[in-house]
Amino acid sequence: MKKEKLLSMENISVNFNTRRGVVRAVRNLSLSIDKGETLALVGESGCGKSVTAHTINRLIPMPPGIIESGKVMFNGENLLDLSEDEMQKKRGTDISMIFQEPMTSLNPVFKIGTQLADVFMTHQGMKKRDAIIKAEELLGKVKIPSPKKVLNDYPHQLSGGMRQRVMIAMALASPEPGLMIADEPTTALDVTIQAQILDLLADLKESVNMALLLITHDMGVVAETADRVIVMYAGRKVEEGSVYQIFDNPKHPYTLGLLNSLPSNDKYSSSTRLEAIDGTVPDLLTLGEGCPFANRCTFYEKKCDISFPEESSVEDGHSIWCFKASDFLKGDI
Ligand SMILES: Nc1ncnc2c1ncn2[C@@H]1O[C@H](COP(=O)(O)OP(=O)(O)OP(=O)(O)O)[C@@H](O)[C@H]1O
Which part of the chain is the ABC transporter domain (predicted)? Predict the structure, then answer.
């Protein structure tokens, strides 16, 4: 299938002004997603995954946040230039988002049917009766048993997995959901339900040609769902490649650490979480210009403290950002 670019983030840096100082949450990050593709953003807690997603959706609270530089091009327009009204129209139509705990996005006082129908009424100008019919159809599409009954349920009457299906249904209420951002969508669910939700996302992605930006710290989820992977560390992209390139030929010391810390033979299985690598993530308040992984890296050299390395290509579609790249590639290390 021919690749067509849907979203590209160019050189994004996001800071937060806090009482303790400036938190440099995301640094010079570029990424792109093709139509229909699943890109996974992985990395330990606090590395900037959610801030990246919220930058796309323009949900960074400003203040304290500042998007210091960069562009977010979506279907040819820079989302950062849109007014709040224009952006509001994009959210829930062209770009939808599902979160770890859907209860926070569903309104507890309205029935599921009312909330879902509302999306059709707002975004597609439908009459209430038609919108309810559509809502029922959509609940069927996300494989909710007895959709008619669920229309009359309140969010608290559903299980976590069912609520997540409702959120996915809401995201699909748009005629062309170009991009779905899923921030830890299955973390709160047990393993069986998690697998069902991932299968559902994969099916829907095929049938509506929706792209998925998947944020997770679960390598099992990445292996099962992603086409491409970006590994982030302390606000920086350190490695990028296809899911096969990252799992079978990881090159960056951080990615290697992540994969080595998984139980053996468990690389591709579900429910494997990123285990801690020796050392701790640096304080984003005091980060200098160097590589943020320097203090935990076995290959540390003095220059790692001074500047962040340029991109080095491993092979087509696979890159790392590390001063030792040429040694890794020659096989000297
Ligand atoms: N509103 C805010 N004010 C101050 N700092 C913030 C704010 N939002 C995020 N940050 C900081 O930005 C950094 C990146 O946070 P982010 O939530 O993107 O991490 P993450 O990789 O998604 O982690 P997790 O997996 O725990 O959600 C963190 O150090 C966080 O404390």
Answer: 7-259
Ordered structural domains, the chain, with CATH:
5-103+179-330 (3.40.50.300)
- Sequence-distant (6+) residues with CB within 8 A of 197 are 161, 164, 165, 168, 185, 186, 189
What pTM does this model have?
0.89
Sequence length of the chain is: 333
Q: How far is the CA of 46 from the centre of ligand 1 (A)?
A: 5
Of the CA atoms within 13 Å of residue 26, those in its CB half-sphere come to: 29
Cα of 229 vs centre of ligand 1, distance in Å, is 20
CA of 146 to the centre of ligand 1 (A): 39
Q: Summarize pLDDT for 45-95 with one digit per residue, the tens.
A: 889 999 999 999 999 999 999 999 999 999 889 999 999 999 988 887 789
**288: Cβ below 6 Å to ligand 1?**
no
